[in-house]
Amino acid sequence: MKELRIFFPFIVILGLFLFVLGIVLIFRATKEEGKLKTFLLITGISAVSPFIFTLLHNLFYGLAITFTDFGYIFIPLHVISFIISVVLAPILFIIGGVSTLFYLKHKEK
After folding, report:
1. pTM attached to this predicted model
2. Which of 58, 51, 21, 26 has its CA nearest to residue 40?
3. Are 13 and 48 in contact (CB under 8 A)?
4. pLDDT tens readout for residues 55-103
């Protein structure tokens, strides 16, 4: 198990790199118009959201453990933020990226 921890710094660096590129993509999308703006925003937001929703998942999980009386509030929030971070964001990233590439390819013709 300890051997797998040597990859953790690389994963963190890649995650932060994706986060920064997502922010750049969002700002780039504000200068575009039409469908391209929509596709770039979907791709940028889905690149930024795993980092944000992972932090929210950990926050809500910690609050659910700390304040057990309010578990009915924090447990669904940490489950929803986990699903967004692990399932929904990568799916939207693929959809947005592929849609952007198809749009740019067909726009050039």
Report:
1. 0.83
2. 26
3. no
4. 999 999 999 999 988 888 889 999 999 999 999 999 999 999 999 999 9
